[in-house]
Amino acid sequence: MTRPSPDPRPHTALGRMLFGGMVAHLIGGAVRLGLPDALGDRESTADGLARTLDARADTVERLLRALAAVDLVEETAPGRYALTPTGRLLRSDHPESMAAIARLYTDPLLLDSWRELAGSVRDGSVAFDRVHGESFFDHLRGRPEQAAMFHAAMADGTRGTARVLPDAYDFAPFTTVVDVGGGDGTLLSAVLARHPHLRGVVFDNAEGTALAPAALERAGVADRCAVVTGDFFSTVPAGDVLLLKSIVHDWDDDRAVRILTRCRKAITEDGRLLLVEPMLPDGAATAENTVPFLSDLNMMVNTGGRERTRADFEALCSRADLTVTSVRTLAPPSGYALIEIAPR
């Protein structure tokens, strides 16, 4: 009996997945070259871009063809190229820029750990610690250029949430918002600008808050916001709203509970803790978005953290004498879960 020919479609699908890493490096390489900024809002040729980028015209042409194949540029006429709407997000001057994210997620800082994924799956160890001999955040403290790259990416990744959070939650009953691990203040600036009755505190380590004063000044809220440096494992400034975006997922359960416990001590009895985090669905079969699952593994290999389901967050909060009161999904371009938590 003749064996039927295998269905080619699974091979095609798997091939696309395997080439996915190359697509990421295509994007990261284009950003590092400065190609999206060089194209800007105009059309250009490979020759014109090569002169601007100090590169070879023939290799720039090959890069442009690949970028067109993944819909980041379009060939508007033979040999002439322009950014697509998706490609424009790679410009450093775009209000929703993802250029810094592209740099971070294609840098050896993160990728070296991914090469050790199998080891982390086998024994639960943090690959980054094995590769570098220290934890992710300890590593950043001694390397200002990598720390700056990381914090720039975090700021880029916060802008979408900053657009929607100020109108997605009722801040009217409160007076002081503390952004725990708030970095350069991108998110808190948007909340304070939308709600002029509020005062705020950006709380992070010295590297994280380095650009906060300038960001608060640009937003016109510096007179209502303090910048405080410290360690959220030790203490957290008091407030009636404590806001944490993409903080808890960096840590394992025990250290996440330590952070939440510090927040429980800092919050007023009628206050609220707001977590803005990716949230895993209850089962993989119900997933419409692969990103939280990939982010879960990224946390596992790089920081020892994890993404969590609603039940996971409820269990963490219970250990910290807190209770989840509501969960909603923030509108695009955020898409994060907004988890409201109250003292028990």
Automatic annotation (TrEMBL):
GO terms for molecular function: methyltransferase activity. It comes from Nocardiopsis lambiniae. Residues 22-90 form the O-methyltransferase dimerisation domain. SUPFAM superfamilies: S-adenosyl-L-methionine-dependent methyltransferases, Winged helix' DNA-binding domain. Pfam families: Dimerisation, Methyltransf_2. CDD domains: AdoMet_MTases. It comes from the Bacteria. Residues 114-320 form the O-methyltransferase C-terminal domain. The keyword Repressor does not apply. Keywords: Methyltransferase, S-adenosyl-L-methionine, Transferase. This is Methyltransferase. The keyword Protein transport does not apply. PANTHER family: O-METHYLTRANSFERASE CICE, PUTATIVE (AFU_ORTHOLOGUE AFUA_4G14580)-RELATED. One of its GO terms (biological process) is methylation.
